[in-house]
């Protein structure tokens, strides 16, 4: 036994975690589906820094996110932060590097993000997202595309019974704006509604000196939700008829959902008239996607038409979505979703004796050149033990390199699934493996 030399037993930092090979494989599987969907919808990948200026990330993040950012001074005395989301970085990129490029932009990125949240189910301090942004169009078909894209991703990873919760921040903001509520209070109201603290939100609205009609209208809206999408839309129109901007917002939501329906997408949608999201930059349609097995959103996004302008770019309408890769993985585990990766002909090459290691390595290189995944036995185990190890790790084939067979230019191939083996000429190994796949 090794002596303990006083070194601490290191653990991961709270809210961070290691991924086992099986979990890492699932994450890369989801990322692969993300890239496939990006390709099918015409989105180009960009890579932005993990570290950005604090001012950029805090500009329209919302109070909740601002308080949870990992913020620090660098050695030059500048206030910087780890990105808590992708959208400000993408908006900065478009406002600067891409400012003279033709619209629209269809951009996506994948990576890790950081928030100092209280760790709990589906919420970590380091987490992974895929982020899609469609920038340059204010048309409802752009919003519809983001909803459809998200539905395509959920189907691609094999999730069932997804429900899309949809709303429009322009409805609530339109009412508050017409009632002359200042922007700071408006943002606070939206934050409370995002947390479903409706009573506190209405109390704050009353304190802002709004009309009784405003309080009554908001009270009716927060109660209005359901899956009969167009019936809910009609009720929303009636409730907000005396608020011009809110009427326009409901009409815009109606157009978006009508386009999704006309596309032929079979999406289970529910409209929530009092729905809000914590980020301050949203200006239009917003949505989140859920599965019955989890009470946390697998993704969320919406329209934000003024963010790029805020960062010094040209006025550029935009709509986007962030998909929580960790949460999608959790949903897949709950639904026992199988990864459709095709058959894997993993091979273990086992030299019978030490003198045959070079030949084993030569055969392994030949197989890798043919895109066949190979492991060479490197622990010095006897053949029986090496076969047991390969079997335990669900390796499909073992190639046993023995002196007798090598003298005849051959090896033994053992199918560990079927418990069958045969002697095969070295030049025929690849053909043999591929014919059995």
Walk me through the structure.
It is a single chain. This protein has 437 residues and is α+β, with helices and mostly antiparallel strands. Helix content is 41%, strand content 20%. The protein has two domains: 314 residues, BirA Bifunctional Protein, domain 2 (2-Layer Sandwich); 89 residues, 3-Layer(aba) Sandwich (Rossmann fold). It is built from 17 helices and 17 strands. The strands form three sheets. A nine-stranded mixed beta sheet has the order 1-5-6-12-11-10-7-9-8, sandwiched between helices. A five-stranded mixed beta sheet has the order 14-13-15-16-17, with helices on both faces. Strand 13, helix 14 and strand 14 form a beta-alpha-beta unit.
Could you write a compact summary of the structure shown?
The chain is of the alpha+beta class. It is built from 17 helices and 17 strands.
Topology, please?
Elements: H1 21-41, E1 44-45, E2 51-53, H2 54-58, H3 63-67, E3 71-73, E4 79-82, H4 87-95, E5 105-114, E6 126-135, H5 140-156, E7 163-168, H6 169-178, H7 183-194, H8 198-207, H9 212-223, E8 225-226, H10 229-239, H11 244-262, E9 268-272, E10 285-290, E11 299-303, H12 307-310, E12 318-324, H13 325-334, E13 347-351, H14 357-369, E14 374-376, H15 383-392, E15 397-401, H16 403-407, E16 410-415, E17 420-425, H17 429-435
Parallel strand pairs: 1-5, 7-9, 13-14, 13-15
Antiparallel strand pairs: 2-4, 3-4, 5-6, 6-12, 7-10, 8-9, 10-11, 11-12, 15-16, 16-17
Helix pairs in contact: 1-5, 1-13, 5-11, 6-11, 7-8, 8-9, 10-11
């Amino acid at each position: 036994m090794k002596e303990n030399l006083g070194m601490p037993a290191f653990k991961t930092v709270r809210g961070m975690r290691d991924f086992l090979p099986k979990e890492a494989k699932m994450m890369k599987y989801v990322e692969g589906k993300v890239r496939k969907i990006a390709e099918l919808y015409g989105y180009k990948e960009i890579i932005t820094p993990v570290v950005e200026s604090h001012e950029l990330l805090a500009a329209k993040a919302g109070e909740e996110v601002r308080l949870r950012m990992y913020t620090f001074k660098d050695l030059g005395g500048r206030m910087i932060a780890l990105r808590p989301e992708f959208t400000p970085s993408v908006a900065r990129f478009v406002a600067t590097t891409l400012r003279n490029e033709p619209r629209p932009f269809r951009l996506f990125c994948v990576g890790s993000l950081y928030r100092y949240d209280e760790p709990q189910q589906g919420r970590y301090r380091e987490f992974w997202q895929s982020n899609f942004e469609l920038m340059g169009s204010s048309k409802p078909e752009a919003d519809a595309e983001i909803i459809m894209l998200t539905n395509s991703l959920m189907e691609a990873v094999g999730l069932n019974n997804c429900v899309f919760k949809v709303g429009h921040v322009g409805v609530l903001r339109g009412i508050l704006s017409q009632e002359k509520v200042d922007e700071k209070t408006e943002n606070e109201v939206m934050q409370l509604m995002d947390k479903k603290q409706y009573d506190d939100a209405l109390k704050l609205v009353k304190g802002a000196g709004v009309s009784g009609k405003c309080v009554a209208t908001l009270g009716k809206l927060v109660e209005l939700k359901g899956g009969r999408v167009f019936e809910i839309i009609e009720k929303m129109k009636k409730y907000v008829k005396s608020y011009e901007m809110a009427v326009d917002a409901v009409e815009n939501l109606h157009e978006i959902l009508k386009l999704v329906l006309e596309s032929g997408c079979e999406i289970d949608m529910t409209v929530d008239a009092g729905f809000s999201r914590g980020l301050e930059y949203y200006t239009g349609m917003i949505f989140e996607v859920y599965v019955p097995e989890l009470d946390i959103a697998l993704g969320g996004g919406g329209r934000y038409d003024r963010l790029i302008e805020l960062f010094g770019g040209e006025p550029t309408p935009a709509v986007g979505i962030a998909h929580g890769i960790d949460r999608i993985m959790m949903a897949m585990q709950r639904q026992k979703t199988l990864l459709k990766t095709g058959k894997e002909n993993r091979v273990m090459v086992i030299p019978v004796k030490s003198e045959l290691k070079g030949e084993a390595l030569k055969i392994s290189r030949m197989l890798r050149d043919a895109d066949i995944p190979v492991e060479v036995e490197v622990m010095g185990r006897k053949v029986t033990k090496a076969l047991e190890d390969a079997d335990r790790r669900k390796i499909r084939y073992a190639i046993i390199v023995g002196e007798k067979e090598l003298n005849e230019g051959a090896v033994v191939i053992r199918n560990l699934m079927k418990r069958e083996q045969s002697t095969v000429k070295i030049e025929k190994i690849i053909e043999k493996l591929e014919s059995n796949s």
